[in-house]
Specification:
This protein has nine helices and six strands, in the order H-H-H-E-E-E-H-E-E-E-H-H-H-H-H. By secondary structure, it is an alpha/beta fold. It is globular and about 65 Å long.
């Protein structure tokens, strides 16, 4: 097979894979929502039941760094006209939607929202929203709203921090049911909400959108390949039969990369 034929085959494979992608798939979701205030506004208005909410800024794959401890990468970070901050996370695997992860995301948002010396009352309201493929809470509800409250009275504590879990398997004729239907659609023509259908259609059916997604899928392939190589190198390290230099030569990783893997393994 020639190089051109190989490229054509990969392109066709990408098109087949692209047709199967849904908004519930992380890579497709973040690309469709990147900078798209209309899409994010629709989702937030429905989930939070705030029809007047107006989104003014949207960023995807936002890296929030912690110099000493674990950093996080937020799928979507949005700001509304009142300065409130919204983190939307897509999570297909139940394990990745743990309650303490939601808590950590919330805390990491807070850490980066105050300037040095700024009063604590200047903290904006924050919302961490997990869109999960399954009903991870197991109670059959469409949306789970989690708030701090006074234990005895049940009255809300009112610290401005909010966590929501949205049941991606929920279906009915309500706005949330239709929204979750759209998030599971592979065909834009089957979607209920035009703004979501148009955005998905751009990437699935236009030449420009196909080119963008093909690049993303290629990057994902490359990342997956690199992760596989590193996994093999780790097994070599665990065997303790080869030197770092030999592992570097066999795996194709640089000596520095192998050394870092060795240090990680030791840690």
């Amino acid at each position: 097979m020639t190089a051109t034929e190989t490229m054509d085959q990969k392109h066709q494979e990408d098109l087949v894979r692209l047709r199967k992608l849904r908004l519930m798939d992380d890579a497709f979701f973040t690309k469709c929502f990147d900078g798209e205030t209309a899409c994010v506004k629709l989702v937030l208005q429905i989930i939070l039941d705030k029809p007047d909410l107006d989104v003014v800024d949207v960023r995807t794959q936002v890296f929030v760094e912690h110099l000493l401890n674990r950093s996080v990468r937020l799928d979507v970070l949005a700001t509304d006209s009142e300065g409130r901050k919204f983190n939307i996370e897509i999570q297909r695997a139940d394990k990745g939607a743990g309650r303490k992860r939601a808590r950590y995301n919330s805390s990491m948002m807070d850490v980066n929202l105050l300037e040095k010396g700024e009063d604590f009352d200047a903290l904006p309201e924050t919302f961490v929203i997990f869109l999960t493929e399954n009903d991870v809470m197991g109670l059959g509800e469409a949306v789970y709203e989690i708030e701090r409250c006074f234990v005895k009275s049940g009255k809300r504590f009112g610290d401005g921090s909010h966590i929501f879990y949205v049941n991606g398997s929920y279906r009915d004729d309500s706005p949330v049911g239709k929204l979750m239907h759209d998030f599971s659609c592979t065909d834009p023509s089957d979607m209920c909400y035009t703004v979501l259908a148009d955005r998905a259609r751009f990437f699935k059916e236009s030449k420009e959108g196909n080119a963008i997604m093909s690049k993303i899928l290629e990057d994902m392939r490359r990342q997956s390949y690199q992760e596989g190589i590193k996994a093999v190198a780790l097994r070599m390290l665990e065997s303790q039969k080869l030197s770092l230099e030999e592992i570097s030569a066999l795996s194709g990783l640089s000596l520095d990369e192998v050394k870092k893997l060795s240090e990680t393994k030791t840690a």
